[in-house]
TrEMBL record:
Domain of life: Bacteria
Protein name: Phage tail protein
InterPro entries with a match to the protein in the record: CHP02241, Phage_T4_Gp19
Length: 143
C-alpha cells in the first residue's frame, strides 16, 4: 500500500476552537449526522408507509485524553461561558502517529456541554483521563 494511502490506524485528534488549539485527544465519538424521518400512512395504501425527511440532527461530540497541560485551555474555554458566550467554529483534525493529517471536520456554532475530569483513586491507579462534550449545529463546508 502506498504511504499516501496509509489508513489511520493510530490517530490523535487535534481540536481548535476559532484558532485556539485545545490540544490532542486520543478518542473522538459522535461525529455524524442523522436525517430525522416523519412517517405518514396513506389511507387505502396498506403496503407502504411514506418516510418523509424533515431535518438533520447532529449528536454531541465527545473527546477524551489523558490529563495534560492543555487541560488549562479547556478549563478557560468552559470558564468563558460564565461571562457570556458567542458560538464558535471548531475543527477536529485526525492525524497519524507521525503528525500527518488524515481527515478534518469543521463544526458550526459549537457550545461546550460537559467536562468530566479524571477519577482519582489511590487504590486503583489508572491514567487520569478527561472528557469534553460539545454540541454543534452542523458541519462547515471547506474547500
Amino acid at each position: 500500500m502506498p504511504a499516501t494511502d496509509d489508513p489511520a490506524v493510530s490517530v490523535c485528534f487535534v481540536v481548535t476552537i476559532d484558532d485556539i488549539e485545545l490540544g490532542s485527544f486520543n478518542s473522538c465519538q459522535g461525529l455524524g449526522a442523522e436525517v430525522v424521518l416523519e412517517q405518514r400512512e396513506e389511507g387505502g395504501n396498506n403496503h407502504h408507509i411514506w418516510q418523509l425527511p424533515t431535518r438533520l440532527k447532529y449528536p454531541n461530540v465527545k473527546l477524551s485524553r489523558p490529563l495534560t497541560r492543555d487541560t488549562e485551555k479547556v478549563a478557560r474555554w468552559f470558564a468563558s461561558m460564565t461571562t457570556g458566550f458567542s458560538r464558535k467554529t471548531a475543527h477536529i483534525e485526525a492525524r497519524t502517529g507521525d503528525g500527518r493529517p488524515v481527515a478534518r471536520w469543521g463544526l458550526l456554532e459549537v457550545v461546550p456541554v460537559r467536562w468530566t475530569g479524571p477519577v482519582l483513586n489511590a487504590e486503583q491507579p489508572k491514567v487520569a483521563v478527561e472528557t469534553i462534550e460539545i454540541a454543534h449545529h452542523g458541519f462547515v463546508m471547506e474547500g
